[in-house]
Amino acid sequence: MIHLTTAGESHGPALTAILEGIPAGLPLQPDDLQADLIRRQTGWLGGGPYRGASPRMKLEHDRARILAGVMDGKTTGAPIALLIENADHAKWKGRAVDSMTIPRPGHADLTAAMKFGFDDLRPGLERASARETAARMAACSVCRKLLAALGISIGSYVVQIGSIRAGLSAMALEERLKRAEENPLRCPDASAQEKMQMEIDRAMKAGDTVGGVFEVAAVGVPPGLGGFAAWEQRLGSRLGAALFGIPAVKGVEIGDGFAIAAVPGTQAQDAIRREGDVLTRASNHAGGIEAGISNGQPVILRAAMKPIATTISPQESVDLASGEKTETRYERSDFCTVPRAAVVAEGMICFVLAGAVLEKCGGDSMDELRARFDRLPRGAMGDFQLDPKPKIFW
Ligand code: EPS
């Protein structure tokens, strides 16, 4: 129902995004996209980036221009075109650039060279760079706006950086999401947050990088999004694919994911209860998705990010021009991107959920969409039509 294409190289003139399928009538200004662009760069809205974000984040002041699909401050239903200029491009334009022939293990350098037969590694890494997520973020922020108009909100928080884990088991989801916005590492646990910054500082001092784990939550998601009739309809498969589409993400879980594999079946489910006229659940191990369909509980996803491949300390490699054993050379990069990736993940979830809502409800205008969305069943007893009579099915 909705489709997103981005284009642009990390140090080219600009990044662009075309987002198709957003209904007409959604109020949209460049300022609406600004908060997410700043959060993607710095981790939060409270000031500059954390220590260990790429120095590029201080050079770029990402701002999206809306080139198409919006008239008189409202979407028209036509494709939305967005453009973010690369400030760093000025340093590259017209300049002869030294060849790059030594691939960094873990980056796109080697796989791109093998795949495309490049005579230099830059054409691969320029597009593979996580700079692309700026364009994605702007487009996904449009999806966030659509979801917000329907009462669906998406947030994220960091649960682990390197070996430091946040202690969040006693903290309600709402509190986690609120506290994540109060520090650039997006960690709701203040004492863990300090240790996480020290972990990043240690990695920087050692010329190394550090990975981690973040969680993304969507609140207000109605029951019934996704499907199980085909594997690609499953909401989990779509959300998982979207998270795996973020550079350096190597693991994804839904709800209690891998941990639930170790407990008996009777303890792994979320008991169904009736409170007055509505059904409630005793827990949310399922992360808001059962059998590929949203169940009305918060949708919770977790993603593990490997440490960034670009390190100041050299790593073993081979010069592809000479064939000689050698070591990697340093290119400017982040030392830790986990908090920034968490914000990108919010965007990806916004994109998938906006698509799933439009698939379920349709509508060419926001008014049509909203009217259909408001009529969706929410799991009240009166919504069910079960009949206890026996039936002959086949
Ligand atoms: C990024 C821009 C890039 C990197 C980083 C993310 O800019 P530059 O290469 O000029 O420093 O800082 O890219 C990566 C982490 C990567 O692996 O490519 C951005 O805007 O997010």
Describe the structure.
The chain has 394 residues and is of the alpha+beta class. It has one domain: Chorismate synthase AroC (Chorismate synthase, AroC fold, 4-Layer Sandwich). The chain is 31% helix and 20% strand. The chain is built from 12 helices and 17 strands. The protein has a 5-stranded antiparallel beta sheet. A hairpin with a 2-residue loop joins strand 7 and strand 8. The structure holds ligand EPS. The site of ligand EPS has 16 residues, from helix 6.
**Between the first and last Cα atoms, what is the distance in angstroms?**
35 Å
The CATH class assignment is Alpha Beta
User: What hetero molecules are in the model?
Assistant: ligand EPS
Radius of gyration: 23 Å
The description of the largest β-sheet is: 5 strands, antiparallel
CATH superfamily placement: Chorismate synthase AroC
Residue fraction in strands: 15-25%
SSE pattern, N- to C-terminal: EEHHEEEEHHHHEEHHEHEHEEEEEEEHH
| Tertiary shape | globular
Count every beta strand, where a strand is a DSSP E run of 2 or more residues. Answer: 17
Which stretches of 5+ consecutive residues score pLDDT under 50?
A: none
Provide the number of structural domains. Answer: 1
